[in-house]
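Example with several molecule types.
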Amino acid sequence: DGGITQSPKYLFRKEGQNVTLSCEQNLNHDAMYWYRQDPGQGLRLIYYSQIVNDFQKGDIAEGYSVSREKKESFPLTVTSAQKNPTAFYLCASSIPLGTGVIEAFFGQGTRLTVV
Amino acid sequence: SQQGEEDPQALSIQEGENATMNCSYKTSINNLQWYRQNSGRGLVHLILIRSNEREKHSGRLRVTLDTSKKSSSLLITASRAADTASYFCATAPQETSGSRLTFGEGTQLTVNP
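Resulting structure tokens for the full complex:
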């Protein structure tokens, strides 16, 4: 089965703790993304990576960090500097469909709750 | 503010009716896509329309794009209860060379049996 796997599905964190969300893909896609979704809202881009060992900040990168040591894996760390981390986190990868055109494939998400 | 803004925010219809959702965006785009999200799940790609296209069909879906008005619409014909989901438009701004997608806030569609 090809796809994107996010784990865990639900995650609880105490205030002040760092936590890492896992994202693995076996689609052989070069590009991967992390989005945050708050209730009733759209997706906001946190970080993205177009190739191994390289990544760029998205629109809301403060309080988050990522690494891209392997093509298949793009973990997201939510640090204690993120003041409002409770949200639904979505990982995606993409394939190019032509010049300047990509199609995104999403994992099933991780719901993070700060307790 | 979001690059894409969907309208309406919520839509409730009866099975068999058509559902129309609109998306407006601000900057020049390379292409526009529509995605669907079932509650608490990831997004699934539905259809893509390039900036040089005006209309595209896929099964019960029809997408239009008006680049002069910076707007797009998604029409779902003969809706079914299983179409109940949130629908998002996503744009690829030209200045990003298509390397990232910017999503709107979505339309929550409810199809009543």
